[in-house]
Amino acid sequence: MTAVTMPQTLGKANFRTCPVTALKVDVAAERLIIANAVAAVVFLAIGGLGALLISLTRWQAIHLLPADWFYRLVTAHGFDMLVAWIVFFEIAGLYFGSTILLNARQVLPKVAWFAFALMAAGAVLTNVIVLMGLADVMFTAYVPLKAHPLFYLGIILFAVGALVAVILFFGNLVTAKREGRYTGSMPLMTYGLMTAAILAVYTLISGALAYVPAFLWSLGLIPEVDPGIYRNLFWSFGHPAQQINLAAMVSVWYALAAMTVGATPLNEKFSRLAFVLYILFINLGSAHHLLTDPGPSFAWKATNTSYAMYLAVLGSLIHAFSIPGAIEVAQRRKGFTRGAFEWLRKGPWREPGFSSLVLSMVLFGWVGGVTGVVIGTEQINMLAHNTLRIPGHFHATVVSGTTLAFMGLTYYLIPLIFRREVKLKKWASWQPYVFGIGMLLVSIGMIGAGLQGAPRRHWDITFTNSPLAASLPGATQITLAIMGVGAVIAIVGGIMYVSVVLISILTGKRTEPSRLTLVMAQANPLVEDAIPNQNKEVHGKLTPRGTIILTFSFLGFLMAYYLFNWWLLGRAWFIR
Amino acid sequence: MLAPERIWWKPLHRYEKSWLIVAFVFCVFLTVMMPLWYFTGRQNVPVETYRVTPEQFMQLTEDFTKKYQVSDINGAPVVAPPPNSDVFMVGRRWQWYPIVQLQKGQVYRLHLSSLDLQHGFSLQPNNLNLQVLPGYDYVATIVPTQAGEYSVICNEFCQIGHHLMTGRIIVTE
Questions:
Q1: Number of independent structural domains in chain A
Q2: Chain B: nearest CA to A117, how far in angstroms?
Q3: What CATH code is assigned to B49-172?
Q4: Tens digit of pLDDT for each residue in B91-144?
Q5: Which neighbouring-strand residues pair with B154?
Q6: Which residue of A has its CA nearest to B149?
Q7: Domain boundaries, chain B
Q8: Distance between CA atoms of A252 and A255, rounded to whole angstroms?
């Protein structure tokens, strides 16, 4: 054991060899991954506290917070979750994919620490300003709503730090290739992370174009910022930022599938094509937020909202087949070949990496993806714009999808990267289910309330103190209660996650990992399962028949919900 | 997860090919639905937009209110314009002004703008939602298809009184 863990010098960096995967781990990269991942979890905990308080406020029967603190915490929750938690975790992922997976070193670790410091300072600054009540403007900060200049500055600092980290990621890739650290092609996970990084570059540039003028305007240096143009620039940042999450999450899906059942991509070309479609088309989706705005024409809105021709959706549909397909083939290789679904029934359901992968895919696709395609339809958006259907959609994608996948991955980073024994393993086994079910209820509750017209970011949908009474259907109260119950369950899941992570890294035994999985008896599916045994190859038995049934049912469900919404629209007033 | 061999450009499996084709056809269908509805559907997102200053728009709204006011509710004027006319409704902290009375089945040109922040025009329970920006006169040509009292609420955050911001459209037979 001691021989393999001794740091080895290779080039300028200090390497150790991972005893499980035999990958060379640059110690500098490892420390950076740890710092970014810990920062991510800290902001997840802060944002999660906000989530609890605001959902208990929107649950009309409880109505916990006063209005000013409600709006304040919605602002903080949006920033901490959508920006701080996710981006810190993604930066950790980028360093992981560009160094450890490639046996490569981290370039310019000092600059990487500088990037980390910028991001941390920016995130703290923004939080402090928001919690002081100087920026009750929501995460979107739509002009002419004005925040304290330091609010914008905090976000700008964070974005600059993230941009530096992304550039270092590309530096790592180039260096790894030039120094010949790996043979063959770039692994699919790194390829997906590269997709995320490419998206991140133009996302962050758009963010600068939106926030820098707003910052100067808040200082009084420029007289005004046009609200329509600000919206366009902001969403060229805000929406693609979620597409970075998408690409990173899909990469994590491939990784979890490999780590838990030894799945290898069915066809690298197929999966990589999907990532290329993301790079080319997905940023057009920024228009989703401008569909009912004054200004743009029908042609502009329809072209952009459909990603040219739903080509980014096509990318996601490819992954929707290729990842479950890869899992199915890997399971069938183990002998689970009976019927269409034995491979699924006999999956390692107690392994948190597997359950979080499956739940993340199902909730992301069947709830998040379906609602996203529907509300992103130009005309149907009139029924959904700024209602709770929007947060209902993105809580299914960013929380049930991305966050759950990242949570699942974290459990494996604790032994491999932090080199600590995982504590509370039972909690880790149950956590994806608790969190997933909670978030499913949150999304369904929100979508149900939104279908009845309930607005997002709204303190009191009973309009009790309005000079002119207004009302929403009574069933809105029920759907909001479903959301509230779901939020409480999801918060329990979140607490379980944070507890497992913090207790493991603070009190877990310092140890070298001896196997990849947490619960399963198997030592290393990456090695044991991933190499197909040529003698056992029985054609027909190994084809992903179950997956094709699943994907076609998915398409049927999407079609039904899509047509239902056209029917709903057809009942509205005539409008042109 | 580990590096594959250098040449990964392999032909697709039968299932992959058929799924790709089906998915692509589905994407084409989704794309075609929007222009199809644009030319044949009766609910489309308004496009007509003009530049306007908040002062100009308030003046237009005041003139409109004076011309067609019929009564008031809690001090807020109720305005009943004739069919085929221009109707003005302004969003401001924290009210949609004025209350408008329309006739079922008639055509109106509804002008929307804001005097201060961004607002969200949200007609309930019909659930039609439009973004309203200061500096933009957004014109929706509408036909109310059912009679009744409709609430207009605000669904774009506009500071502390956001949840108090309401308005009303009354549709008579």
A1: 1
A2: 30
A3: 2.60.40.420
A4: 999 999 999 999 999 999 999 999 999 999 999 999 999 999 999 999 999 999
A5: B121
A6: A470
A7: 13-42, 49-172
A8: 5
